Amino acid sequence: MKGLYKVLFLIAALYALSPDSNVNCSYANYTKGEKRNHKYLPTSLEQLRAEGVQTIAEWKEKQWKDFMTKVKEEFNGFNKVIESQKKKWIDGKDNEFQQFIKYIENKWGHSDEELYNDILSTEAEESLTWGEDEWSEWMNTKGKLLIKLDLDKWIESNEEFLKESIRKDWEEWNKLKLREWNSVGWKNVEDKYWKYWHVYKKPEEPLYEIKMDKMDKWTERCKNEEIEWGKWLGSIEKVYINADWDKWVKWKNEKNTSFTKWVDSFATKWINNKQWNVWLEERNNASAQ
Description:
mainly alpha, elongated
């Protein structure tokens, strides 16, 4: 009789571990408390066929495909929110640009010793003896370049903020979607079981070879999902996340053009007003204090 029991147990176990079985005993053996998660798996061939598949393995692959379809649809909604935020952000840039110009006017209209030395750099000492020609030459060459460099830094900081904000929202969103997939009842139990069994498996246990084969298939399926997920993320990032935003590119080009004209006008005014005299006076006053 004992031999018969062993045969019956082996037959039942083989059925439970097969991809076409209604109940996978591997899950039931993990913890009693997680048996309730089996309700997420089809329990009959009729349920499988209703979804257009014949086996549990096919059903699991279909669940992943359905999940990816859902995520792609949800991304459209996420992208609309991002586009709305970007529009609001760029709509405020014109006013910020005017504030930046006022900052430049104030910076180049007055100077203490520290600012003077910072702007003139290695020519700070020599410039103390310059006349009008030297100051005019310096402003029309190095001075203009320094002012434009301030604009470049300002634009760069704004661009970094924009890209970092978008990337942060994107990473939070796609990680949330992946957590949704990994928390699905049947998958959560399956993943826990095979990770546990991989660590504590024993070659002498019943059905060891069959379980190894099942685990290999689980590993392959997870790997394929990971590859597909990574490719999809890459395609989205290339087109939507990391790509240059045409409206921002246009805005930068327009402001660079207008700023270049403004700098020419500002430099002429600065020279005509002999603004360096104000610099020198304020520098000397600051040094004397």
